[in-house]
Amino acid sequence: MALIVQKYGGTSVGSPDRIKNVAKRVARWKAMGHDVVVVPSAMSGETNRLIALAKEIMPTPDARELDVIAATGEQVTIGLLAMAIIQEGCKAKSYTGPQVRVLTDSTHTKARILSIDDEKIRKDLAEGNVVVVAGFQGADENGNITTLGRGGSDTSAVALAAALKADECQIYTDVDGVYTTDPRIVAEARKLDTITFEEMLEMASLGSKVLQIRSVEFAGKYKVKLRVLSSFTDEGEGTLITVEEDKNMEQPVISGIAFNRDEAKLTVLGVPDRPGIAYQILGPIADANVDVDMIIQNVGHDGTTDFSFTVNRSDFAKAQGVLESVKSHIGAREIVGDNKICKVSAVGVGMRSHPGVASQMFRALAEEGINMQMISTSEIKISVVVDEKYLELAVRVLHKTFGLDQA
């Protein structure tokens, strides 16, 4: 007998029929003798509906009250799911995040989990109950309802699995695992049987939408055994996310190709090449709460430098405005921007022991006439910025170049 934490996304519980299907799946696990804790999201579209409702009252909603409203989506789901599980002949109890005492900090709409009181859950499990806990939510030390931000149910599930020392945390979604790239772009994309936490973390941060990045960080930190599965099929074992690569097997050089369309580039032209200029440019950007991704600096021979960086496309106009406001102060000649770019990345722990991956990647792109505007590397990833119109071609070419279309 094992203790299993199962998380179901919004599409998995998107209708009464789908909730009943989840209940049947949970009942099968319970019938096999396992203890089961279930963490569902709100029904698909419900959180968006609640936020839109709040904005009809207050265009920029008060953060505390928005959490009170947004948290109700999961409360509806846990009640419906608990009833559906009872209908399947199992005992079940549902709890909101605050009821189980998921303690968070006080940062409304994007709170972080500090601790979880597992006593109530363990008591219910010992009495034979399936325990259904609302994802995405908790409460701060003053009892205020908080939410964890978009995709927070993944983090809730992993945190519960860590607190309960569960044998496995299963993330059920609308795909049957983690793929070498998006199958909608590359038909030959393959589902991976395993992937390391490091690789999954890079894939999540670089644009893969399968798992929320905070949940992967949490799972890696607490060594939670994590598996991605489809809630629409009982076939296959999904993708297991492991602590480290299997030392007994030959590790592929590249595990996946990730991409992100939501990129924009800003370039500050002709600033004086002097110590502190990077801070003078990026300091005001940070003060405006804009996250910077890739950075490149080109030093000229005339005592000036060009400084480029990327931001999320939604922050493009704000960042451009900030730069225009400090342009004269930093002595820049011109500010130019481009919000028609994308980032394409090759990820794999095998890079550590295989030299020449970068040159192989750059050659493949060059042969297709794809110009690289920026390059960023880490120990297990290489990212390039290219014109948005080349995104799909670049992904397909790199997927083939690194043999990811071969079983």
TrEMBL record:
Say which domain of life the source belongs to: Bacteria
Q: Which SUPFAM superfamilies match?
A: ACT-like (SSF55021), Carbamate kinase-like (SSF53633)
Q: Where does substrate bind?
A: 47, 74
Catalyzed reactions per annotation: L-aspartate + ATP = 4-phospho-L-aspartate + ADP
Return the Gene3D superfamilies for the record. Answer: Acetylglutamate kinase-like (3.40.1160.10), VC0802-like (3.30.2130.10)
Q: Which GO terms describe its cellular component?
A: cytosol
Keywords of this protein's UniProt record, alphabetized? Amino-acid biosynthesis, ATP-binding, Kinase, Lysine biosynthesis, Nucleotide-binding, Transferase
Its GO biological process annotations read: homoserine biosynthetic process; lysine biosynthetic process via diaminopimelate
Fetch the Pfam families from UniProt: AA_kinase, ACT, ACT_9
What family does the Swiss-Prot or TrEMBL record give for this protein? Belongs to the aspartokinase family.
Query: PANTHER family in the record, alphabetically?
Result: ASPARTATE KINASE (PTHR21499), ASPARTOKINASE (PTHR21499:SF3)
The protein here is known as Aspartokinase
Source species of the chain: Candidatus Proximibacter danicus
